Amino acid sequence: MLSIANKVEQLVSESPFLTEGIAAGLINLSELARQLRPQLESDLWKPVGQAAVVMALRRISERLPQTGMAHSIVLAPRLGELTTRTDLMISTYRLSDTSNECQRELLALAEPYPGTFVTVTRGVHEVLVVCSRPLTHLVEEAFADERLLARVENLTALTLRLNPETRKTPGIYHAVLKKLAWDKISVVNMMCTFSELTILLEQSQTGAAFSVLSQIVGH
Question: What is the crossing angle of helices 29-44 and 16-23, to 10°?
């Protein structure tokens, strides 16, 4: 059974806004404790004293970094710029015994189209294909016999180049996603390589997202 402290930590960790507010000292812990008590008593099936909740919140605040994580993001030397690709499409197919062959066929078909974007990600049950819209017919040809689960069009990809050392920084991706969440920007999907973070979002939110991520590049 969860203790009061563990449950409080769980509730706080589920909200990037609470985490940042507590770390920055912007939240009245007594008032937050009062608001959390009904949820805690419901989840723990027992009365919860406000003093115990406040104590748990104080212990959490002592462990949180006092400065924003976004300011500690390390960009790759001279490559910390933000790059953009527009007019993309996501197709999701059910994983099958022939998915690998479909992937090979697609990459071969796309080879004569330099400058276009295409990537295939294989999951446990699904295959995700991200490509430039002009390559849609190639995707449909290569995966013609596969089961299409979903398709999302009119997307933009924003890629942030990071220093490989960022892999040692806890919460590095959370810091980026948190800044987007603050501005109510929805992430459709994201892809990571060793030193690149690519975020896919609707074209209507490209300007706002570019502005937010540019602040990171600026630091």
Answer: 140
Q: Answer whether 0.85 is exceeded by the pTM.
A: no
pLDDT along the chain (219 residues), means of 10: 81 75 81 87 86 88 61 48 90 96 96 92 95 95 96 93 74 78 88 88 92 73
> Tokens 């013609």 identify what position?
144
Residues contacting 137, CB < 8 A, separation 6+: none
Give backbone dihedrals phi and psi of 131, rounded to 5 degrees, phi first: -150, 165
Maximum Cα–Cα distance across the chain: 67
- Cα–Cα dist 157/163, whole Å: 19
Spatial CA neighbour of 120 closest among 141, 94, 144, 92: 92
What radius of gyration, in Å, describes the C-alpha atoms of the chain? Answer: 22
DSSP assignment string, 117-136: -EEEEE-SSEEEEEEEGGGH
Length of the chain as a residue count: 219
DSSP reduced 3-state for 83: strand
Q: Residue 177: which residues within 8 A CB-CB, separation 6 or more?
A: 16, 187, 190
CB contact at 8 A, 62 and 79 = no
The CA distance from 134 to 198, in Å, is 20
Residue 113 DSSP SS3: coil
